[in-house]
Amino acid sequence: MKKIIKLLIILSLYSCEKNYPLIECNPTPPTNPPPVSYVEDNLLEGEWLLMGGKMIIENLELDYTEEFHHFDAGNTSSLRYGGSQYEFEEITRYTTTWSFDIPDNIPGMGSFILDYDSLQPYGLNVTSNNLSVTESLVGTTLQLGGSSRPIQYEIISLQNNTLYFYVQESYENIDGYNCRYYNKLFFKKLIN
């Protein structure tokens, strides 16, 4: 008899109806979806003139950010903290030009021309959401020391053909502190 009572108690525990919270099957979409990042090939195609820029340095240990305008001391500057090592890193206001030749098929390789030097173009690796200036696909000269320079951009005005390019992100010890820096360059489109 005791066994039957125990069995009935155990069965009653497992046969109880359980109430689970309802999960909404169709949640409402967010009101502000995140921006889509992609390469606008027909916007970038052509020549761009450097109008201004600044270097942004983030001190990772002291948690503060400083901005230095590239052309406060003159019309030339460097994308690299401490001075240029490669021609790509040397910039001159109202003189430096960047030209993009986006490939017909994306992903693919196009070309990037610095300061109208079409005899030694750089490579341009283009995916649906990334741009990188690379070493030239032809020749043996290392224009970037064997590396590449990822480029991001932010459209300022389509009517005025202006945008910001973000380039040369690096982590470096500056004055004994771990820092991250990058450059925000202001360009205006010249021709397609």
Topology overview:
Layout lengths: L1 H13 L26 H4 L1 E14 L4 E6 L6 E3 L11 E3 L4 E5 L6 E7 L7 E5 L4 E4 L14 E9 L4 E13 L2 E15 L1
Antiparallel strand pairs: 1-2, 1-5, 1-11, 3-4, 5-6, 6-7, 7-8, 8-9, 9-10, 10-11
Mean pLDDT: 83
Strand order of the largest sheet: 1-5-6-7-8-9-10-11
Largest sheet: 8 strands, antiparallel, barrel
Parts with pLDDT < 50 across at least 5 consecutive residues:
18-37
Determine Rg (CA atoms, Å): 28 Å
Provide the β-strand percentage band.
Answer: 35-45%
Helix fraction?
A: under 10%
Integer count of domains: 1
Count of separate DSSP helical elements: 2
Order of helices and strands: HHEEEEEEEEEEE
Number of strands: 11
What is the distance, rounded to the nearest whole angstrom, between the alpha carbons of the first and last residues? 94 Å
Give the overall form. extended
- The class by helix and strand makeup works out as mainly beta
Question: Gist?
Answer:
The protein is mainly beta.
Question: Could you characterize what this model shows?
Answer:
The protein is mainly β and about 190 residues long. The chain is built from two helices and eleven strands. The strands form two sheets. An eight-stranded antiparallel beta barrel has the order 1-5-6-7-8-9-10-11. It has a two-stranded antiparallel ribbon with strand order 3-4. A hairpin with a 4-residue loop joins β7 and β8. The chain is extended.
Features:
2 helices; mainly beta; 8-stranded antiparallel β-barrel; about 10% helix; about 190 residues; 11 strands; extended; two-stranded antiparallel ribbon
